[in-house]
Amino acid sequence: MLAETLLPNGWVHYLLGGLLIGGGTVIIYLTTGITAGASTFLESTLSYVSGQSRFQQYRFRASRDWRVVFTLGIVLGGAVYGLAFGEFGWTTDVQWWRLLVGGVLVGVGTRLGKGCTSGHGVCGVGSLSETSLLNVATFVGIAIGTAQIVAALGVSP
Amino acid sequence: MSREQRGSRNDAERHPLFLPAILVGGVVFGFGLGLSQMYRPEVVLRFLQLTDLGLLLVMGGASVVAGVAFAVMSKTGGSAPLTGTQFGKRVKSMDRNVLLGGGIFGVGWGLSGICPGAAYASLGVGNVTILYAVAGMFVGAYVQGYVRSNVGATEGATEEPA
């Protein structure tokens, strides 16, 4: 009963999907020792086209090619899922300005805060890193507040 | 030298299976973002509006799997076969940017329901509308990088070493 209230759309796919996200992280970790996050790709890729000193740091230049491969892998994995489960071609109804403005803030915040839902949320929490736990508590708490306000203002979808 | 950096040597020194391993990991990661429905901003927003808490299972499941691997391998003291990098955990230094950045990310995530990895997977599913978010992320990453490159040189001092 409680489960139907908290998880009205079931739970198996959430858990299996989460285990696979962790599994992908573990494949990279066991073979390379890298604890990979998804948002560094934004800055390491900008190093190809921008001479700004922030992007030209060695850590971005040295990792930019494999981060492109990691991201292409994620795109490919999404495509395989979409084709296998008949969801390929689905598009969101969330309004474009929410995606664009939200995206800008995600770009600023994840890079300033040293990670995102995968770097801090999966790898950092998995490492029981105090820095990551504080970061995740902050972004989840603020995101819940923001989403509640946006919904209360009647913005939908 | 950070772990990520040590894992990324010059092409000549790299193991031929380095990039294939990254690709396979990425595909599994992206498939998981598909199966968990995190590629749909609507589903993430349902969590943030507290009407479907499935995201907790996703992040919980993923971090437990990763955490067990990190803990076990770190204890062995061994090294990764393709890079020679010693197994360790993901530890980043704490400063005010971690909280400020987390807060800004939170506003963006709450407004859009999208985060970087999920956006890449969503694009793979064919959700071309998500390009608004991907473009926004690059703009945001560029703006913070531009500001930090040109304003207040001391900002860089709080960064991770390389």
Outline the structure in words.
The complex is a heterodimer of chains A (157) and B (162). Chain A contains 7 helices and no strands. Chain A has 157 residues and is mostly helical. The mean pLDDT of chain A is 97. With 162 residues, chain B is an all-alpha fold. The chains are: A mainly alpha (157), B mainly alpha (162).
Mind telling me the C-alpha Rg of chain A?
18 Å
**Beta-sheet strand percentage of chain A?**
under 5%
Order of helices and strands of chain A: HHHHHHH
Radius of gyration of chain B: 18 Å
Keywords (chain B): Membrane, Transmembrane, Transmembrane helix
Protein name (chain B): YeeE/YedE family protein
Pfam families (chain B): DUF6691 (PF20398)
Transmembrane segments (chain B): 16-35, 55-73, 98-119, 125-143
Quick overview of this protein structure:
The complex is a heterodimer of chains A (157) and B (162). With 157 residues, chain A is mostly helical.
Topology:
The complex is a heterodimer of chains A (157) and B (162).
Chain A: H1 2-6, H2 12-32, H3 40-46, H4 58-84, H5 96-112, H6 119-126, H7 130-152
Helix pairs in contact in A: 3-4, 6-7
Chain B: H1 3-6, H2 18-35, H3 41-48, H4 54-76, H5 96-112, H6 116-125, H7 131-150
Structure characteristics:
heterodimer; A: 157 residues; mainly alpha; B: mainly alpha; 7 helices
